[in-house]
Structure formats: structure tokens, C-alpha cells
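Lab notebook page, bench 4
Experiment: in silico fold of construct C2
Operator: M.H.
Input chain length: 221 residues
Purpose: comparison with the prior construct
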Amino acid sequence: MTQDIKRLLLWLLAGLIIIGSIILIMFSAKPTIPNDPTETISVELIEQVNDKDWKRGAASGKVTIVEYSDFQCPACGYWSTEVEKLVDEFGSDLTFVYRHLPLKSIHKNAELAALASEAAGLQGKFWEMHDKLFENQNVWSKLTGNDFKAQLANYAKDLGLDTAKFAEDLESDEVADKVNEDLASANRLGLNSTPSFFFDGKLIRPDSPAGFRNLVREALK
């Protein structure tokens, strides 16, 4: 065996030892598990809660949760029920704020649903329409065009709204501006998924209802 071949084999052996060591380290390292069951991400809430926001619970609670949500998002539908439980439990100390983030590229009816909630809000029934939309998400999400608008009109009627005014407001600049303001706020924050929750100004990703509830409890101690 020539000297050059021996040198080449030694280099190959050294390389294999290095690669094997790296692989061993990667697979033996344990992932870091946060103590808190809810992950906190370092993003500041730029827009402060104001009088234009839709709120549930306390007008100005010890804890504030802001959600950017999409009425056609299945995960948002799930969390809407869980948030309602939080408000029922901690409502005297908790302020919940709903903001719009319709993901129009994947949810064809999300924007019009958001407009419908704001149109209902002009008649004092934003939260009633909010609940109606989430409760019936599986129904109206499958509709298109005029069928969806007709369904929204039925919801407005069920809620005792002036349906003529509702239909007019649905097309109004006032309603569109409100949804677009929330959407612009979400874009400034770099949000691209729903639901996105802010807990006292910090973006969080709740892993479970229990984790979310514990986070509120700890903040109120």
C-alpha cells in the first residue's frame, strides 16, 4: 500500500469519526421543555386596546387577551368556545378582545363573515353574530356567492336585526374600514395564522385549554 493511499484512508477515517460524533450529539441531546405549558413569543402588541375594540368580560381587567381570528378557521371555532369559558370563569378580572384576521387566500367566506359581524355590531349585536357564525361554521363555510349572503340574512333575522339595514351596512365603507383596520394591525405585527393570541401584550401559543387557564390564574395571583 503506497503512502498516498494510507494518507487518504486516514483522512477518510478521521472524517467518519467526526461525522459520527456530530450525529451522536444530535440524537442524544434532550429538547428544552418550557416550564410554562403555554409558549410565549417575543412580539409586542403594537396597537393598544381602545374603544373601537369588541370586548367581553371586564371593561378594563387585570388581564387582557387579544385574539386575531378568522370566522371560517376551524381552530378559531374551537378556541371561541374555550375563550368563552375563560370569560365566564375570570370575567371580572379578564378583558377579552376580538380582532379580525380573515385569511382570504384559503377561506373564501371569511372576509364577508367578518363584515357581517361588524354590520350586526352597528345594531348592538356583534357578539350575537360572532357566536352564531362560529356555532354554524360547518354550514355557511360550504356556501358560495348569493347562497352565503342569503344565509347571513337569515342569521340577521334570527338575531332580530333590521335586515334591510344589515344588508346595507354589509356593503358600507364603515364596516369595511373596521375589518381592514384590524387586518392592517395584524399585518404590522407580521401575523399570518389564526388564532393568534396576545396575553398582556405578548404573543402566545396555548397548547391546551388547561394551559391557557393556568396562565390566567398565575397572572391573577
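Observations: Strands lie at 39-44, 54-57, 63-69, 94-100, 196-199, 202-205. Residues 1-30 form one domain.
Next step: discuss at group meeting.
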